[in-house]
Amino acid sequence: MQAVALYQSSIGKKAIMAVTGLIWIGYVAVHMYGNLKVFQGALYFNEYAEGLRHLGEPVFGFRHLLTVARLVLVASLAAHVWAAVSLYNQARNARPSNYESKRIVQANYASLTMRWGGTVILLFILFHLAHLTWGVPGVHNDFELGNAYNNLVYGFQSLPVVIIYLVALVALGFHLFHGTWSLFQTLGLNNKSVEPLLRSLAWILAIGVPVGFAAVPLAVLFGMVTL
């Protein structure tokens, strides 16, 4: 019963957001690092992409660990969105509706950024999957299964697509900063002695990860990475 009560409480939902957010922070940082391998050429990048499917061999089979990772990411994202929506509705219902306009005006910048930025990121994830993972016609018309390098280069030769990625990366930067800072507080890791270090880490993630991601589509667009 105590576990159920904690799960339904604001503290429990914030803890869920913190833990699932930490999982996704780790993922985007590793994913960004992997994307930068495109600068080492088509052969190296395709070998890296194919190597992800063989992680853990021979102990684990083909795509086993990759599938587990995807399931964890999907579950984490679903829990993160659920907790965020639940906390928002809980806060919204805490006051009578005639105070709603005043409450929105007084909402702090971080919460508004997280809410709208999170929506942009969620929509972008769907676009990104359709673009470079599933190769949905109309989103990526030159998709070739198993040729990650060509898919990436062809995919980022479109200026509108690059703009979509850059807008999403701006939202990701804000989300990473406020999210990282919030999870430190939620998990009780923040105090005066480590606050400067944690704030610096939040800034490093908020700037370094989006810049690392942005380097790839911009390099393709400006002809630095070609077929």
Summarize the structure.
The protein is mainly α.
Distance between the termini: 59 Å
Fraction in beta strands: under 5%
The proportion of residues forming helix, as a percent range, comes to over 70%
Largest sheet features: none
Number of helices: 9
- The residue-averaged pLDDT reads 89
The SSE order reads HHHHHHHHH
Characterization of the model:
There is one protein chain. The protein is mainly alpha-helical. Helix content is about 75%, strand content about 0%. Helix 6 packs across helix 8. The longest helix is centred in the middle third of the chain and has 29 residues. It starts with a helix and ends in a 6-residue tail after the last helix. About 5% of the residues have low confidence.
SSE layout and pairing:
Blueprint: H1 2-8, H2 10-35, H3 42-52, H4 64-92, H5 100-106, H6 109-133, H7 148-155, H8 159-186, H9 195-221
Helix pairs in contact: 1-2, 2-4, 2-8, 2-9, 6-8, 8-9
Keywords:
mainly alpha; 0% strand; 227 residues; 74% helix
